[in-house]
Amino acid sequence: MRREEARMGREPLRLVQFTRSFHIGGTEVQVLELLRGLPSSYRLQVSVLEDAGPLIGSVWKLGHAPEVFSLKGTLAQPNTLVQIYRLSRWLKKHRVHLVHVHDFYSSIIAVPAAKLAGAKVIVGRLDLSHWQGKARRLLHAQVTRMADHVIANAEAIRTLLVEEEGLPRSRVSVIHNGLDLVRFDARAKEGIKDPLPETHGIPTVIHVANMSHPVKRQEDVLLALAMLRHEGTRLNAWFVGDGPRRPGLEKMAQELGVADGVHFLRHRTDVPALYGQATFGVLCSTAEGMSNAVMEGMAAGLPMVVTKVGGNPDLIVDGERGLLVDPERPAQLAQAFRRLLANPQEARKMGKAARGFVARELSLEKMVRQHDALYRQVAHMP
Predict the structure, then answer these.
(1) The whole model's pTM is what?
(2) Which CATH number does the domain 182-361 belong to among 3.90.550.10, 3.40.50.2000, 1.10.287.130, 3.40.50.1000?
(3) Glycosyltransferase subfamily 4-like N-terminal domain: which residues (predicted)?
(4) 122: left (phi > 0), else alpha (psi -120 to 50), else beta?
């Protein structure tokens, strides 16, 4: 059957989810949620650049064996063209109607391949391209313009696509990330899996992010803690995540005289339970898409202190579901921490409102439903 027949409901919509790999990350988690949640009326297939990552087992359990189109190095080599050709042949063979591609590297392969195969293609733009150099940003913009439609997960990303990259607003949809509250709550109830440092009754702020890129600005939390310590206010901090920047951050904590209250917990599998043990959360990045870390903190009922960047203002209304501060302003972070510590009733009210917002607006069901509607719309476009 051809695509026209699929439009008339005579066969399932053949959809490919294409992502770089299934290492632990926000994008990969959202792809998994789509694979779990989309209706059985889809004929789903998965493609990757690398058949790797700790989440790959979950993909197999869902009955998907990812098809691999490996770059085997940089984009600037003949193999890139080979993989584009291979993918186009594969899409034609499986009579795929629609490809949803989720990241930069996969887009370079999947968008031209889909065009060659006569399939529709949706590009996911899930961050502000802050980690890319100028050449990659230009390439990403060109590939994005080739797509039939674009999904951004935050208003700030749609603004970038329209105002800086020149995409028509009608070709960009905002679909926020979704969070499965039932699964999140179940994981929280499993409790702490590894020992935690003793807090001695001192309030604790939790920061969940990798330590691979300076955009996360863990330094500003350390500076805010030092400011509070200088005035006699004690606050513990748990840094969850790891990466090559950790030794430098540990040294900074020592130099600032706050190391006795700063604990680097590295990677943890019990993050929902950790949130439940903290007083409030923080994410002070200089750039963000739609942060799963902020969403999970909100789901745990924590007031979150976040910077006014990217998708953070989509999640937090200042003074209602948490507090907003300017990026790279540790003094503002310290002031926000003071406010929450001095007003525990207000902090609890913010946390309750944050949890309610996640339940209403960021449910997994809503995210899947919006993707489902858009997939059918794009697949049926002439």
Answers:
(1) 0.86
(2) 3.40.50.2000
(3) 24-182
(4) beta
- Encode pLDDT of 344-367 as tens digits: 999 999 999 999 999 999 999 999
Token pair listed for 130? 């802050």
Q: Please indicate whether the domains covering 3-178+363-379 and 182-361 agree at the CATH topology level.
A: yes
Q: What share of the chain is helix, strand, coil (3-state, %, to 5)?
A: 50, 15, 35
Please write the tens of the pLDDT for every residue from 16-50: 999 999 987 778 989 999 999 999 999 999 999 99
pLDDT number for residue 164: 94
Q: Is 3 in a helix, a strand, or coil?
A: helix
Neighbours of 341 (CB within 10 A): 17
Element spanning 133, H or E: none
* CA separation, residue 114 to residues 3, 15, 275 (Å): 14, 12, 42
Dump pLDDT digits (tens) for 50-101. Answer: 998 899 999 999 999 999 999 988 888 999 999 999 999 999 999 999 999 9
In angstroms, the Cα distances linking 262 to 73, 100, 220, 230 are 38, 41, 13, 15
Q: What is the DSSP letter of 148?
A: S
- pLDDT tier, 10 (very low <50, low <70, confident <90, very high otherwise): low
CA–CA distance, 371 with 357 (Å, rounded to integer):
20
Best CA proximity match to 279, nearest among 193, 207, 178, 185: 207
Tokens representing 35 are: 């694979």
DSSP 123: E
Nearest 5°: phi and psi at 357?
Answer: -65, -45
- CATH architecture of the domain with residue range 3-178+363-379: 3-Layer(aba) Sandwich (3.40)
Read off the pLDDT of residues 220-256 as tens digits, 9 standing for 90 and up: 999 999 999 999 999 999 999 999 999 999 999 999 9
Domain extent listing, the chain: 3-178+363-379, 182-361
DSSP for 191-237? ---S-----TT--EEEEE--SSSGGG-HHHHHHHHHHHHHTT---EE
Contact 20, 106 (CB under 8 A): yes
| Mean residue pLDDT across the chain | 93
